[in-house]
Structures are given as C-alpha cells and as structure tokens.
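Weekly modeling sync, notes
Attendees: S.R. (lead), two postdocs, one rotation student

Agenda item 3: backlog of single-chain predictions. S.R. asked that every request posted to the team notebook include the full sequence so nobody has to chase files. The rotation student volunteered to paste the first one in as an example of the format we agreed on. Action items at the bottom.

Example entry:
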Amino acid sequence: MARYHGLWLLIIKTLAIIHIVQAQSQQGFISLDCGLPTNEPSPYKEESTGLQFSSDATFIQSGQTGRIQPTLASRLLKPYTTLRYFPNGTRNCYNLPVEKGRNHLIRARFLYGNYDGLDNNPTFDLYLGPNPWTTIDLRRLVNGTREEIIHIPTSNKLQVCLVKTGTTTPLISTLEVRPIGNDSYSTQFGSLNLFFRVYLSESKTTLRYPDDIYDRIWTAYFWKEWTQITTTSSVGNSNNYEPPKAALASAAVPTNASEPLTIDWTNTEKPDDLYYLYRHFAEIQDLQTNETREFNMVWNGELMSTDPIIPDELKITTILSVTPRTCAKGECTFQLKRTNRSTLPPLLNAFEVYTVIQFPQSETNENEGMFQCVSNINSFIHVRSILLFFYF
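Predicted structure, as returned to the notebook:
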C-alpha cells in the first residue's frame, strides 16, 4: 500500500501481544519446530502460549540442525531459536500428510539468525512439490519472513521443498499446516498466496489461534485519517470464514465523514498479479432511528457492485471476490464510499487480500529417488502451534 507498502515479519517477543481466549479444537494441525535437537523434548509446550510443537525429524531425513545466535535467541520464542539447514544436495523436501481435496493453510517461516557465524543471509527457492512457490531472500529480510498459501492438495501427501539456487545454504525455522473447510476461499483460478490480512484497530495485539479457529494470523492496522469505533458486545462471526470475534469488535471509519475509507498498495515487483479480496463488515454502533450507514465498494475507481453494503448489527457480513481483480502497473486502490442517503461514514472491520498462484503439477513427486525426503503417513501427529510475530 502507499500507506502499507510491505508486510515483513518481526518476531521479537517483546514487541507484540498475543490475545488468547478459550481453547478451540486443534485436530489436524501440524506444527513443526524445524531443527529441534534430538536431546530436547518433542512435542513440547511453548511457554507463552501453552501450545505444543513437534520436531520435524519425522518428516525429513536430510539437513542439519542449527541454533541462532544467543543474543538474538533470548528475545525470541523457542520455535524460532532453532532451524534446519541443508548444506548438501540441491533439493530437500518435507513430506507431510494432508487430506486430499480439502483446503489447507500452509505456512513456512525462515530466520537466519547468524546461526553459522558467517553473517551471510541466504537466498533460495521454495517449492510445493515440483511447482515453484516463491524465492526466499533473507538478505533483505534480516528479521526473517514467512510464506503462506491456501491450497487444495491433489493427493494425501504434500511436499514442501527448499531448493538451492546459488552458493548460500537454504534453511527453515517452522512449518505449519492447518486444514480449512472447502466452503471458504474457493477459486477457479488457482491457489491463494497471502498478500496481507488485517483487522482495523489501533490495538497492538496480533490475533491468531485460539481466537481464530483456523490459526490465520491477523495484524492490527490503522491509518491516521481514520477514527476507531469499538464495541464491548459480542459480534456474531458465524459464516464460512469465521474471522475472530476480537477482530470484528473494532472498525475504522474515515475521520472526515464525507471522505471515502481508502486502502491502497503498490506491488511493482509483480504488477500483473491477480487479487482476491475478502472484506468483513459488522455494524458495531447502536444506530438511532434517524441514522443510516450504507456505502459502495470501489476498486481502482470503478464501482464493484450496484448494490450498496448495509452492515448487519453485531453480525458479520463477508463480501468476497467472485473473480480475481487486476491493478494497472501494480497500483491498487480499494475504497468504501458512503451513498447519498447514508448519514454515517463507511466502516470496515477486517480485510484479507490474496494473490493467485498456480501449482499445475501434483504436489508430490512420485519418483522418491529425486528427493531427499521421508514418507511417514502413519505418524500423522496432531500438533499445533501459536507463533508470535508482528508486522512492521
């Protein structure tokens, strides 16, 4: 965004607050602490969250384990203090059990932490089976980074591969898989690569599991031209997407009530990306009989629908893209504009943006001799995690 140009990972423990509520079911979650030493307990409880992590050793046979520099490790959560790195071979793959045909959130995190004392942040490629996913360039992201997609596997095994592309050594800190229902995030154009996911609040709290039953990560985002409104009432979040109730309990409205609420961004590295938008609305003010709130959605200056949005009182409405959207030269602008009959400015509670990513080949290469990986479906471990991070 012009006000929101990048979402880089910051995992320093003292700079964020995790909002934790009642426990939710964690069935099917896989949370791997990559490089956890064999002499340390697995699974183990992460003390700040009470959730468990498991060693990745069951799911990969290659690589070596490392630990980031102690001066950095003292400020981080335990799962980030270790890593697995791959000095040998061009391609090293994790082999994970998944449910064929079901939507899954797949998330990988990477932190160099000068584990080898060489001060040489690596660059390498990340693959989903034989399909390119993205390039990890930790030279630009010294605080680490994460990659996240929503994807429907075509088999019951999923390979996540690190591919050496130069002279530096690939590494990984954590790897997570979360099953999601097929009645959400469905597209006809490919898988969804997370661009950003925010809830509009002046809070500094990062929301995820157990607030979010799917362990999506929501970052608080606010702009100086907005005013925050909040409610202490419970906001109904029951629909196919179920964003956290805490994310719906606040919203942004433009301070100048006659102005639109604008969120924009620039993606010059990939100007031809296709975008899917998921907008979450709930009326959290007690409107008087003479008050009306309705508004239109505008994308790059064009009206997105002929029907205005009228948020339901204390109940979620999610508006999703049926087809992906494009931006001229990678410059994207989303706006909410009040209608002529509205007495109140538009509001927005939470907002998700994804880009389309194509994985045309099966995520599992059946020629196991090509990969250094292990298949161990019988050891499907129902582990789960909540990893602390914050965007800047």
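Discussion: group reviewed the output briefly. Confidence is low (pLDDT under 50) at residues 1-23, 368-392.
Action items: rotation student to repeat for the remaining queue; S.R. to check formatting next week.
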